[in-house]
Amino acid sequence: MPRVRDFRQFAFQPNRIVRCGRNVGAEVYWKLYAIENTIRIVLHSILSAQIHSNWWPVAVDQRIVGNAQRFRRSYTANPRNASPGTHDIHLVFLSDLTEIMRANNNLISRVVPTTNQWIVTLEGIRLPRNLVGHMNFPNAYDRNMIDAAYSQLPALLAHLSAAPNPTPIIIPQ
Predict the structure, then answer these.
(1) What does the alpha-carbon distance between residue 105 and residue 108 come to, in Å, rounded to a whole number?
(2) For residue 23, what are the CA distances in angstroms to 15, 30, 126?
């Protein structure tokens, strides 16, 4: 299979855009999807266990809460569109998830001793995630950062099931 290159570096050909899109979807996007949603589940699981099931208004900065409410109103006003879920954690960006992790580090690090490393890792993929989210073609460095973050997910999840006090995995609805 020939190497796919950023379509913007060549004369316009619609098939180049299609190849880039397929490549980003097949090689990068799904990893970001897995990273972001795993972080949502980890945060929700730990904060539900450490605080209570309604941890969101207690543990999240009011700016993030307000942004989520604004997005919720947009979805409510357009009921034909798919719902992102009932929990507001589905309405925030990766940078917001990182901020929630940072603000609740004292609780999260009880379960995930590598919380500070995760904060650095998530900050490291924030720009590549935005590139991909805005339909741009990531370079090799960006792809490597995403690949490295993705490869660390099993170790992150292992902390939740670690003895002696495993944290139940709770998927936010």
Answers:
(1) 5
(2) 12, 11, 20
The answer as to whether 78 is a domain residue is yes
* Residue closest to 32 by CA, chosen among 94, 87, 84: 94
As a whole number of angstroms, the distance between CA 60 and CA 101 comes to: 9
Residues 71-97: tens digit of each pLDDT? 999 999 999 999 899 999 999 999 999
Mean pLDDT of the chain: 95
Structure tokens at 29: 């996007």
Q: What is the pLDDT of residue 86?
A: 95
Number of domains making up the chain: 1
In a domain, 133, yes or no: yes
The parent domain of residue 27 ranges over 13-161
Burial label for 120, CB within 10 Å (0-12, 13-18, 19+), is: exposed
Residue 170, in any domain of the structure: no
Q: Which of 157, 99, 86 is nearest to 126 (CA)?
A: 99
Q: Confirm whether 172 is domain-assigned.
A: no
Q: Which residues contact 40 (CB under 8 A, 6 or more apart)?
A: 89, 90, 97, 172
* 43 burial type by CB count under 10 A (0-12 exposed, 13-18 middle, 19+ buried): buried
Rounded Cα distance, 121 and 160, in Å: 18
Q: How confident is the model at residue 107 (pLDDT cuts 50, 70, 90)?
A: very high
